[in-house]
Amino acid sequence: MATLSDSTIWWLLAGAAVALELVTGTFYLLMLAVGMTAAALAAHLGASVMLQIVVAAVVGGGAVVAWHWKRSKSPRPAQANANRDVQMDIGETVHVQQWNDDATATVKYRGAQWTVELADHDAAPQPGLFKVRKLNGNRLVVGKL
Question: What is the maximal distance between C-alpha atoms in the chain?
């Protein structure tokens, strides 16, 4: 019966982590796979099993911590209803001729009638040009230019 070498086991574990990452979509499993790859290289260099485990833990854990720290420093993307990359209406202008008593209005925009509401609920609604800030269902949430 053939036995697997330590490095082969680490390579198989790294491959399994990559395959599992492809199924789940979490980037952290790739960082752990980097640690397992480092352990496989340590095994190729003749390191003891204990040292291989330490290398996997330090490199994989360090990569996870570094990735988490990098993500916490980057700005969060806007929510989908306020993200110009998702909603083409964000940033466009509409002309409000008259506001209703409930601080909504109906405007013609892109060939259809839309209901708009003010983003700043404390502001007194005045007719004029407004910029679309986000979508709230099928309503355009607007703010003064």
Answer: 85
Report d(CA 59, CA 56) in Å as an integer. Answer: 5
Contact criterion met (CB below 8 Å) for 26 and 13:
no
SS3 content of the chain, % helix, strand, coil (to 5): 45, 20, 35
Return the residue matching tokens 């003010």.
118
Q: Residue 129 burial by CB count (10 A; 0-12/13-18/19+): exposed, middle or buried?
A: exposed
Mind listing the pLDDT tens digit for each residue in 72-96? Answer: 888 877 777 777 777 788 888 899 9
H helices of the chain, in order, are 6-24, 28-44, 49-73
The pTM of this model reads 0.57
Within a 13 Å sphere around the CA of 66, how many CA atoms are in the beta-carbon half?
11
| β-sheet bridge partners, residue 139 | 115, 136
